[in-house]
Amino acid sequence: MTSIDLPDLARPYLQGLTELTGETASLAVLDGAEVLFLASSAGTFRLRVDASPGLRMAAHCSALGKSLLAQLNPLDAKRRLGPEPYPASTSVSVQTWEELAPRLETARSEGYALSVGEYEVGMLACAVPVPARNGLVAAINVASTTARMTPAELLEVVVPKLKTAATAIARAQGNP
User: Fold this and answer.
1) What is the pLDDT of residues 19-63, one digit of tens each?
2) What is the rounded distance in angstroms from the CA atom of residue 113 to the CA atom of residue 61?
3) How many CB atoms lie within 10 A of CB 78?
4) Which helix (H) or strand (E) holds 39?
5) In 42-103, where do the E strands start and end?
6) Is 82 helix (H, G, I), strand (E, B) or coil?
């Protein structure tokens, strides 16, 4: 990892996101075809998403993964994912590049990625890129359950908070 201080810089902003939303907030990077969690702030609810540092998950079916992959050249992203079909975590997980590519384009153009039931039934998350030093590809997210939050609430309430936190993390690293 080229920017070892990123988790320490991000931690207070992740905690702030948890305080604002009550939900788990995380920082992750892309490692091959997987998302690697570097830091997280556990949600305040009894039923919460586990995002412990060191946890890995498939990139193609998570908000963090889509946000991270969207930061790459599409050919590089496709290469990282390897051969199709991609493993399905749930019945709505994308399994082909043809399904995933438009979602990555949307994540690039809108500045955020969503996952609703793609990684685990009943779980939803949104993620935004974090400009990092030395070419490191990073993102932060907030993850919840469909019992507490709707996709519309994620977009209206959480995405703006994530974008503000990502900008603050970038500034803390000395990025404009």
Assistant:
1) 999 999 999 999 999 999 999 999 998 877 888 899 999 999 999
2) 11
3) 16
4) strand 34-41
5) 56-58
6) coil
Whether residue 113 contacts residue 103, with contact meaning beta carbons closer than 8 Å, is answered with yes
The third-level CATH classification (topology) of the domain covering 6-172 is Beta-Lactamase (3.30.450)
Sign of CA dihedral 161, 138, 117, 103: positive
- Degrees, nearest 5: CA angle 81-83-85: 95
- The pTM for the full model equals 0.93
Size (the chain), residues: 176
CB 49 within 8 A of CB 149: no
Side-chain-side CA neighbours of residue 173 (13 Å): 26
Cβ–Cβ < 8 Å for 137, 68 = yes
